[in-house]
């Protein structure tokens, strides 16, 4: 359960109104101050029926408690839904184990600060570290330091420069996301002559966007009847999603399928589609937000599927860290040891299987 | 140099000319080059994508896309003409849009969302204005501080989540059914703000004072203008415009997010500058700024229709800013 939002911090209460010279200004000032106080009541974001405190994670841990393990968790600042979900998944999973104590740092996007936080965790002599670096390359050094100090590191998603800096890497598959989105669309449009596909990409300056596009293009090569007619890059924000989608819709009067890299910008894209009054195509999303899954389940818009980039990887990272701390392997595999790297599968969530994935959808 | 105080928006022209002639020459000199750029863009659009570009839908789209940043630019233009700068506009838009779409605010429906957006905008503007006018702080630093804290607060309130709007009356405002005679409501708001801004700047004492304190604050003070109060009002105005823009963005995207308004400050300042506003203050027009916004929006529209990728778009955007300013310089100095 998220803690209740503080409601006292208003940025716009004017300093002492005594500075105002004339009576009119004084009136204006006090009115603004009063109104600002009123508005501060409006920062609450708690829905009345929010009650996910007792929710168990999918595939809750079932095995018996073992040796006590202290896990240090360091992630970046959760400034969007997916990263938020990463923190929550990790925390919730750790809580579900009796034998796990989680020491997590305050998330930071500042490389130097994150290095400092991890060094503190090393000095505290935690048993295992789970690190989602703000920048994989820049934090390689501190990963090495932890490993040399005998603390195994589970590297989450953004990979370190050197395999010596981690014991195990677990993360998503951007290329696979594109591949599966392409395959799903390919199968849906099978037999349709001269099918047109449009791509709404994420931030072009990020390598992961290029990877997703490469996977998507490679998948489409298997379907000679399909042609990608347009691609525009948004910026993972709702605003840019709305803007770029509106332009794509204007540029392409008719097409058959759309792949949108990111469900957050997808909120804007869906809005643009509604504003343009279009519904002749199928839309496939990316990442797997709760909102998208709800829409897919309701099945009343063009959004018919989304390709996962599962935040549950943080929960799995906790599992791995616990197993490392207790010297166990992964259940269900013949191996004695934890694998060195785990690339997660980007499943396609559709109306048929959405119920299975709903608990993992993030806000 | 007291002419600046009595000669709105045209410091370089002798004050003996009649207002009508002055208006005509102002249009000729300042805006012809921008109109030419806009015309050239339309020609390129008509040649490359005739059916998609030259359509009512696309005109509606361009104007809608221009409306949010356009309203922000009107406010920023006032601040710059008054000798200041406002770097916090994007952050204020983000904060106002987030604050106006929290679960608690949404319970009050459309009036609640609108009221909250305007109030947060005004409040941030008030803080900016007090810091700059009575601090006194350099506008660059004061508004930079506001940029940082407003974005931070937006992140804190939203917790990084996208706050989807569920109030039907707000959502409906952004859909085709709400169009008045084919004009989207957002475009109407943009038009109203622009016309009001144009009137206030060119036809009122407030406008003349703005030009005066931007041109020469010391002379304005000696001439009896309350410079500090005027500065405060300018930042309030800019904040109000941000609040309006935030509401418009909520209508347009059906949500509030802490990433909203990203780099609006740069887009708004760039539009004002290519519109002929002097960065050091004392000169500028609302017409120019609106044209500047339209040029930028038309460029992105044109690029998207031709499926050019963002790398090319950014390079070309930079080149066009330079070209537009150079052309304008050549014209005004001849």
UniProtKB/TrEMBL annotation, chain A:
Question: Where the protein is mainly located, per its record?
Answer: other
| Occurrences of domain Periplasmic binding protein (ranges) | 71-328
Localization terms from the record: Cell envelope
Region annotation (Disordered) maps to: 1-22, 43-67
The record ties this protein, via Pfam families, to: Peripla_BP_4
- What are the alphabetically sorted keywords of the record? Signal
Q: Which PANTHER family match?
A: D-ALLOSE-BINDING PERIPLASMIC PROTEIN-RELATED (PTHR46847)
The similarity annotation says: Belongs to the bacterial solute-binding protein 2 family.
- What is the protein's given name? ABC transporter substrate-binding protein
Which lineage is the organism of this entry classified under, starting from the top rank?
Answer: Bacteria, Bacillati, Actinomycetota, Actinomycetes, Kitasatosporales
TrEMBL record, chain B:
Q: Superkingdom of this entry's organism?
A: Bacteria
Major place of residence: membrane
Short name of any one Pfam family annotated for the protein: BPD_transp_2
Query: According to its record, what are the GO cellular component terms?
Result: plasma membrane
Please provide, alphabetically and separated by semicolons, the GO molecular function terms listed in this UniProt record.
transmembrane transporter activity
Subcellular localization: Cell membrane
Q: Which InterPro entries match?
A: ABC_transp_permease
Q: What keywords sit in the KW lines?
A: Cell membrane, Membrane, Transmembrane, Transmembrane helix
Q: Which residues cross the membrane?
A: 29-47, 59-80, 112-133, 178-201, 232-252, 286-305
Q: How does it sit in the membrane?
A: Multi-pass membrane protein
The name under which this protein is listed is: Putative ABC transporter permease protein
Q: Which organism is it from?
A: Streptomyces albus (strain ATCC 21838 / DSM 41398 / FERM P-419 / JCM 4703 / NBRC 107858)
């Amino acid at each position: 359960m998220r803690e209740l939002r503080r409601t006292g911090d208003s940025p716009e209460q004017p300093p002492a109104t005594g500075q105002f010279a004339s009576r009119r200004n004084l009136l204006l000032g006090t009115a603004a101050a009063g109104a600002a106080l009123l508005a501060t009541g409006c920062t609450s974001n708690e829905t009345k029926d929010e009650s996910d405190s007792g929710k168990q994670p999918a595939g809750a841990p079932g095995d018996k408690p073992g040796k006590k393990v202290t896990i240090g968790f360091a992630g970046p600042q959760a400034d969007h839904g997916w990263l938020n979900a990463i923190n929550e998944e990790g925390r919730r999973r750790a809580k579900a184990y009796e034998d796990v104590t989680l020491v997590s740092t305050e998330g930071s996007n500042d490389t130097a600060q994150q290095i400092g936080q991890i060094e503190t965790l090393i000095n505290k002599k935690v048993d295992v570290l789970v690190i989602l670096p703000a920048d994989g390359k820049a934090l390689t050094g501190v990963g090495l330091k932890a490993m040399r100090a005998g603390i195994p590191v589970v590297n989450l998603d953004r990979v370190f420069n050197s395999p010596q800096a981690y014991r195990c890497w677990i993360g998503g598959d951007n290329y696979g996301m594109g591949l599966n989105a392409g395959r799903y669309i390919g199968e849906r449009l099978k037999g349709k002559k001269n099918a047109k596909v449009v791509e709404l990409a994420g931030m072009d300056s990020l390598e992961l966007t290029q990877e997703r596009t490469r996977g998507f293009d490679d998948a489409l090569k298997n379907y000679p009847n399909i042609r990608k007619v347009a691609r525009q890059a948004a910026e993972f924000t709702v605003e840019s999603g709305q803007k770029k989608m509106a332009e794509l819709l204007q540029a392409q009067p008719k097409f058959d399928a759309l792949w949108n890299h990111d469900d957050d910008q997808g909120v804007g894209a869906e809005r643009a589609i509604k504003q343009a009054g279009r519904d002749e195509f199928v839309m496939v999303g990316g990442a797997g937000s709760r909102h998208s899954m709800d829409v897919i389940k309701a099945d009343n818009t063009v959004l018919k599927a989304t390709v996962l980039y599962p935040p549950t990887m943080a929960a799995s990272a906790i599992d791995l860290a616990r197993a490392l701390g207790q010297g166990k392997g992964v259940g269900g595999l013949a191996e004695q040891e934890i694998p060195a790297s785990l690339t997660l599968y980007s499943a396609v969530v559709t109306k048929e299987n959405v119920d299975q994935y709903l608990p993992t959808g993030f806000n | 140099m007291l002419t600046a105080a009595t000669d709105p928006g045209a410091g370089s022209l002798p004050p003996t000319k009649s207002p009508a002639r002055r208006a005509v020459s102002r249009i000729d000199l300042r805006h012809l080059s921008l109109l030419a750029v806009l015309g050239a863009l339309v020609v390129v659009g008509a040649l490359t994508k005739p059916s998609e570009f030259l359509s009512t839908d696309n005109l509606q789209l361009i104007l809608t896309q221009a409306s949010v940043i356009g309203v922000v630019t009107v406010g920023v233009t006032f601040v710059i003409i008054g000798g200041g700068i406002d770097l916090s506009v994007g952050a204020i838009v983000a904060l106002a849009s987030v604050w106006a779409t929290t679960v608690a605010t949404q319970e009050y429906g459309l009036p609640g969302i609108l009221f909250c957006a305007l109030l947060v905008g005004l409040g941030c503007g008030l803080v900016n204005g007090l810091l700059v006018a009575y601090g006194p702080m350099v506008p660059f630093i004061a508004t930079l501080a506001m940029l940082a804290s407003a974005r931070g607060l937006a992140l804190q309130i939203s917790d990084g989540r996208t706050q989807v709007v569920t109030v039907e009356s707000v959502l409906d405002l952004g859909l085709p059914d709400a169009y008045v005679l084919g004009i989207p409501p957002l475009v109407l708001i943009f038009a109203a703000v622009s016309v009001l801004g144009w009137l206030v700047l060119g036809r009122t004492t407030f406008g003349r004072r703005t030009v005066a304190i931007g041109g020469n604050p010391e002379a304005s003070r000696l001439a009896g203008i309350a410079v500090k109060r005027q500065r405060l009002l300018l930042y309030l105005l800019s904040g109000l415009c941000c609040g309006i823009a935030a509401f418009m963005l909520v209508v347009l995207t059906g949500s509030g997010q802490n990433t909203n308004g990203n780099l609006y400050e740069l887009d708004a300042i760039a539009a004002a500058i290519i519109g002929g506003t002097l960065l050091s203050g004392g000169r500028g027009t609302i017409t120019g700024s609106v044209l500047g916004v339209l040029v930028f929006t038309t460029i992105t529209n044109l690029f998207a229709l031709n499926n050019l990728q963002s790398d090319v778009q950014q390079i070309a955007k930079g080149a066009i800013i330079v070209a537009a300013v150079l052309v304008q310089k050549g014209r005004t100095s001849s």
